[in-house]
Fold:
Amino acid sequence: MDLGPLLQTNDTKILFVIADGLGGLDVDGRGTELEAARTPHLDSLAREGTTGLMVPVAPGITPGSGPGHLGLFGFDPLEHNIGRGVLAALGINFDLQSGDVAARGNFCTVDDHAVVTDRRAGRISSDRGAELVRKLAQISIEGAEIFVEPVKEHRFLLVIRAEQLGADIADTDPQKTGVEPLPARARDEKSERTAQIVGEFIAKAREILASEHPANMVLLRGFAKRPSLPTMQERYGLRSCALAGYPMYRGIARLLGMDVIECGPDLESEVDALHKRWGDHDYFFLHYKPTDSRGEDGAFDAKVQAIEELDRMMPKILKNQPDVVVVTGDHSTPSLLKSHSWHPVPVLLSARTCRRDAVETFGETACIRGGLSQFLAKELMTLALAHANRLRKFGA
Structure:
């Protein structure tokens, strides 16, 4: 729906607190990680507001972080499928040109039989990742410019620049261990040359990394070219601000025209930056990564602790009393599965205009009974705008 005719401006403030991978599953009768955590501040917000469960993309579909966040910002992920490579490039401010093909890279560990034993190479340090990137940056391929840039820890960016490249390339990351990396396979004719270049890059990278440990191979995914999307200002009339330490989330914010604020990777620095810029913006996206990382590690108790850390920070996060507060995640990452999952994500919305429901605590089981019921993530922005009194009446 085109909201343009309904939009109206005022001085209200909207805050989205996104705990990446927030949703979980019960483990040994303890409840989910969110339910096992002690969260008095989030529980209070849930009691004062209204809650529900949010489907990131569609029922049964497991989303990547890109689709998960696009839905949060009101863009249908099924209509706007943005490759992870583009988000990685924008996240580190790489000058991505219109014909470039970008991919997100992981350093990984393979055994003597080329079987992946660790998709993240033990989460090597960012310094070590940058050191290995400098080695890969020496790779040259005839007829193409190759750019390799460090992102964070085991992650890096690969950009290929050449004439008439297609970007429809299957991921080489098998998304699991115990198997070999997949070949770079073109899914249409115009991407065949790109696949050949990628294959040559991977072969040379493996030679360079052969003596390294644990990062002795690379996995690539999210091949894409930069798309054109309306900004948050154009779509919603909002002066928007993003506070995120991880480059990928900064990338999606830049793609949507948000003002990406320089801040460290820790929550404390993000919150300090939030308050410094409070008077400059109408909408704030505050990203919290540890919930997702601990879920992917399969560390139930560590994810519980990450949720409790977020809860302890909530009074400081809410110091300036935003008019609308949303707390949710971009997807579920149950530690039981050690991966993203299709399960709906708990969401709470707190505003003066909320109809309170009967929910007393913030958790998956309680939110099933919430007043928001179950809805698609792409509908969340409209709800937030309405509670901020930023939408006029529709029709006569």
In short: The chain is about 30% helix and 20% strand. The two ends are 17 Å apart (CA to CA). Residues 101 and 225 are 5 Å apart (CA to CA).
